[in-house]
């Protein structure tokens, strides 16, 4: 590990062309492009699930399901007519209840990737839900974001999914995960990401001004392409959805994460060049993704 201590590889277009995304031929159906289940949203923040779900579709996934609090499910179904929306049992505050885990686990076998956490605001309920889903799930791959990360300090089922999980924490979430001060993570985000990746046997995308992507073996990549405008509400939900969509298409966890981080950064750069460095919205990133992927494939 000492030889890897400070070694990182830059995330560039040339690097990613060496690990191309799965190709999809004319004539393939929706299922062959992959099925994503986004678990998220709440009465306070229903839009987190919306952004993650739309990002998964923009990344090329063929089918989208969203599981959310029962009270907001009808509105989400109208807002995203492309998705099948499942209303789950909720807490008195409008969060997805932990007891919904069994219902979700039963659906996991019909999806290729799950994105859990965007828009979930109750850490206690989210922790119980995530642990229950991971215990009973047969999904192929997972992205855990936001409140879903609260389950991981005591989450025993994660080991059976080793090699199939991506975490997308910011500094505050990583600090809680490791049981250290936020300032310690900010002082050395790469080391924090390595600790979490090794401990949980996952791929970590440590978000920040520069995003570090780390494998359980300690290999690390660094993306310095992000714009300050990406530091905005909903941006992280969009990144989680992008990675989930790429996983569903069949990209391995590391490739899906590197591509997701790159596409997210490039979408921010495209908007910054047209609209200014700050002030664009997370939802506006979504339409930028397919043209960037197309240029990468042609290039």
| C-alpha-based Rg, rounded | 18 Å
Percent helix, as a range, is 40-55%
Strand content: 5-15%
Domains counted in the coordinates: how many? 1
Q: What's the overall average pLDDT, rounded?
A: 92
Keywords:
single chain, 299 residues, alpha/beta, UDP-N-acetylmuramoyl-L-alanine:D-glutamate ligase, ten-stranded mixed β-sheet, 12 helices
How would you briefly describe this protein structure?
The chain has about 300 residues and is an alpha/beta fold.
What do you see in this structure?
- By secondary structure, the protein is an alpha/beta fold.
- It has a single domain, classed as Ribokinase (UDP-N-acetylmuramoyl-L-alanine:D-glutamate ligase, 3-Layer(aba) Sandwich), CATH 3.40.1190.
- It is 41% helix and 14% strand.
Reconstruct the topology from this structure.
Layout: E1 9-10, H1 13-17, E2 35-39, H2 47-58, E3 63-69, H3 73-79, E4 84-88, H4 101-108, E5 113-116, H5 123-136, E6 142-144, E7 165-167, H6 171-178, H7 182-187, H8 189-200, E8 203-206, E9 211-214, E10 220-223, H9 235-249, H10 253-275, H11 282-285, H12 289-298
Parallel strand pairs: 1-10, 2-3, 2-5, 3-4, 5-6, 6-7, 7-8
Antiparallel strand pairs: 8-9, 9-10
Helix pairs in contact: 2-9, 4-5, 6-8, 9-10
């Amino acid at each position: 590990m000492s030889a890897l201590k400070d070694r990182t590889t830059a995330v560039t277009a040339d690097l990613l062309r060496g690990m191309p995304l799965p190709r999809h031929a004319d004539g393939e159906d929706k299922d062959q492009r992959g099925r994503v289940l986004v678990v998220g949203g709440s009465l306070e923040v229903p839009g987190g699930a919306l952004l993650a779900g739309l990002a998964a579709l923009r990344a090329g996934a063929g089918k989208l399901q969203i599981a959310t609090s029962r009270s907001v499910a009808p509105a989400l179904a109208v807002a995203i007519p492309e998705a099948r929306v499942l209303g789950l049992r909720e807490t008195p505050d409008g969060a997805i209840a932990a007891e919904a885990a069994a219902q979700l686990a039963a659906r996991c076998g019909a999806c290729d990737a799950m994105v859990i956490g965007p828009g979930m605001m109750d850490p206690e309920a989210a922790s119980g839900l995530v642990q229950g889903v991971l215990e009973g799930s047969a999904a192929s791959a997972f992205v855990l974001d936001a409140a879903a990360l609260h389950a991981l300090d005591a989450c025993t089922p994660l080991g059976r999914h080793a090699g199939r999980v991506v975490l997308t924490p910011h500094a505050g979430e990583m600090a809680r995960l490791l049981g250290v001060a936020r300032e310690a993570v900010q002082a050395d985000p790469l080391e924090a990401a390595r600790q979490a990746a090794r401990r949980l046997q996952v791929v970590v995308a440590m978000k920040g001004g520069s995003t570090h992507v780390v494998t359980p073996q300690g290999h690390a990549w660094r993306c310095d392409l992000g714009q300050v405008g990406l530091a905005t509400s909903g941006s992280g939900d969009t990144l989680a959805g992008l990675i989930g969509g790429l996983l569903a298409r069949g990209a391995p966890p590391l490739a899906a994460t590197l591509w997701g981080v790159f596409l997210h950064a490039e979408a921010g750069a495209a908007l910054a060049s047209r609209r200014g460095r700050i002030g664009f919205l997370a939802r506006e990133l979504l339409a930028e993704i397919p043209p960037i992927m197309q240029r990468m494939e042609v290039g």
